[in-house]
Amino acid sequence: MNAMEREYKLFGKNMEKGDEQQVVADLSHIREKERKPLEGEPEKSPDELRFISRLNDYIQQEFKELGIQESRNIEPNQIHLLPRDVFERHFGERIPAFHSTTGDSIYAVKDRLSKEILYDTLVHEAIHAVSLHKFHVDKEKRKVSEYRTGYQTRNPSRKKWHFSGFSEALTEKFARDIYNKHLDALIEEFGVSEKEPQLPMVYDRFMQIVDTIVKRVAERKGEAETSVWQRFKRGLITGEMLHLRDVEETYGGGSLRVLAALDALSGDVLPELIDKVDEYFTTDDIEKRKSIAHEILSGSDLRRYNSQSKSS
Fold it and tell me: How many CB atoms lie within 10 A of CB 38?
């Protein structure tokens, strides 16, 4: 199934079949528009086109190993590889690559990144592209908004993101799995170096937290860490979340509230937040966990945490 044929997952109050058809038509129009080259975008080189083809092979191999029957391919026109000046003209000076969920397209600065980081980044953004996408439809306001990509969710009424840091950690860890598994082929065919791509430290910190959780869950359940990790990976693609109950059973009620607070969009407070979430999932001290939860949660998230932690 290619990007244009992919099923749209929608939800909203009082939606009828005609409403869904109109929303699908609107989203399809946006995606068609984002497939077109941007002003100043060069044609892809033979190497770049070949890498996209290999990337699809790598992703389908992962799908097969995860028991996912559906095929999701990345089309070459979904990926926009841009010179730095062109990228900044359209998007400003921001992160050097991103995936647009609404348009289901990938944008990356091709001359700002080393070959190793560029290819790892494209794998990362491609995983976002093939992950679960779900949209919220506000029929009264005639508005469609992103609700979920992978594990990252956005509360439609509060406009607040949850699990964004967790989802980014899983996505990058998934990307590293693919990159390292096919490193020999990447070296031979595309001339990348043997060194692991050095990405922003925040990704490493996120992944350390995920590694800790995977290890603790595996120890409690008496199974291999790879089995826990495979379930986490599969959930990015399929939207399955029941396995996250293992986190609460391992760390106690309300733990998912803390994990959801690991926000990749927190700006200046991010390093402090990462430290606190890391400590929460590392310590065995139950009272310390509760203290940390009260430091980082507020409002309805804190109230729900208190209710869930008391009942566990």
Answer: 15
One-letter amino acid of 43:
E
Domain boundaries, the chain: 1-164, 200-312
Contact of 28 with 99, CB cutoff 8 Å: no
Query: Which stretches of the chain are DSSP H helices?
Result: 17-34, 46-65, 84-91, 115-130, 164-181, 183-190, 201-221, 225-238, 245-251, 255-260, 270-282, 286-296, 299-311
Distance separating alpha carbons of residues 154 and 149, to the nearest angstrom: 9
CA angle 56, 167, 210 (to 5 degrees): 110
Global pTM reads 0.92
Structure tokens at 267: 């700006």
Is the four-CA dihedral 264, 266, 267, 272 of positive or negative sign? negative
pLDDT digits (tens, 9 = 90+) for 68-84: 998 899 999 999 999 99
